[in-house]
């Protein structure tokens, strides 16, 4: 486990808030990028009727977004601000503890995760809107119905769970939850297929998503093992 990053600040509160705001913006953007790649990849697979090369390209985009999300999450979880105060003020953004006469501020995990989830919802909503507006809106079988949205929700949630499991020193509870989610998705995958498509799919979205998640998990776990 690498040592945590300590940032010493002379004008503490203003700079700490500024850095915290930038972290939240970065978290929101990476969350948005994650579901833009997952939901966007799913949409491209539907448009190509399950072309394996398109599914492979979508998997590469998902791996890129998951890697960026994990790098940011790991760095922020290790980041702290060491401040020399007589007393500390309560902050919804930071948790605090006193170490060696200094107050150490860390970004609250709940706030950080909420920014990622909000970004993820924004990205998924953008892809959902794309299937209902413009040229794609005429293809009724592409419309993001509640049934089809399950694929997008599972893809985004599984990556978030995997990333946080690895960022929390391989948290087995989160990892198990991700595996349970994907197992339930595999058992019920027949319910989430596209209905009314003009032709049959070469590779279904559900099968592609399972393979993509397994590949991403192996790559991220291997990368984490090499970095420790």
Would you kindly provide a written description of the structure presented here, covering whatever features stand out?
This protein has 228 residues and is an alpha+beta fold. Helix content is 65%, strand content 9%. A four-stranded mixed beta sheet has the order 1-2-4-3. β3 and β4 form a beta hairpin. α1 runs antiparallel to α2. The longest helix has 36 residues. It is elongated. The N terminus is likely disordered.
Q: Level of helix content? A: 55-70%
What kind of sheet is the major sheet? 4 strands, mixed
- Number of helical stretches of at least 4 residues: 6
Reading the helices and strands in chain order gives: EHHEEEHHHH
Can you describe this structure in just a few lines?
The chain has 228 residues and is an alpha+beta fold. 65% of the residues lie in helices and 9% in strands. 31% of the residues are buried.
Outline the secondary-structure elements.
Layout: E1 5-8, H1 12-47, H2 52-78, E2 79-83, E3 94-99, E4 102-107, H3 109-132, H4 146-167, H5 172-187, H6 205-227
Helix pairs in contact: 1-2, 1-3, 1-4, 2-4, 2-6, 3-4, 4-5, 4-6
């Amino acid at each position: 486990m690498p040592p945590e990053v300590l940032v010493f600040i002379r004008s503490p509160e203003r700079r700490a808030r500024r850095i915290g705001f930038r972290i939240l913006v970065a978290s929101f953007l990476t969350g948005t990028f994650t579901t833009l790649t997952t939901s966007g990849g799913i949409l491209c697979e539907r448009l190509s009727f399950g072309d394996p090369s398109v599914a492979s390209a979508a998997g590469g985009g998902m791996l890129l977004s998951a890697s960026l999300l994990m790098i940011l999450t790991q760095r922020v979880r290790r980041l702290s601000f060491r401040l020399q105060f007589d007393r500390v003020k309560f902050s919804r953004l930071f948790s605090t503890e006193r170490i060696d006469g200094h107050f150490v501020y860390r970004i609250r995990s709940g706030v950080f995760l909420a920014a990622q989830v909000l970004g993820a919802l924004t990205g998924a909503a953008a892809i959902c809107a794309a299937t209902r507006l413009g040229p794609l809106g005429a293809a009724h079988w592409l419309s993001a119905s509640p049934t089809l949205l399950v694929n997008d929700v599972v893809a985004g949630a599984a990556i978030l769970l995997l990333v946080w499991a690895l960022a929390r020193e391989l948290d087995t509870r989160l990892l198990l939850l991700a595996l349970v989610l994907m197992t339930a998705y595999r058992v019920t995958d027949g319910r989430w297929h596209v209905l009314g498509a003009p032709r049959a799919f070469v590779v279904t979205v559900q099968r592609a998503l399972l393979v993509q998640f397994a590949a991403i998990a192996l790559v991220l776990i291997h990368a984490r093992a090499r970095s420790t």
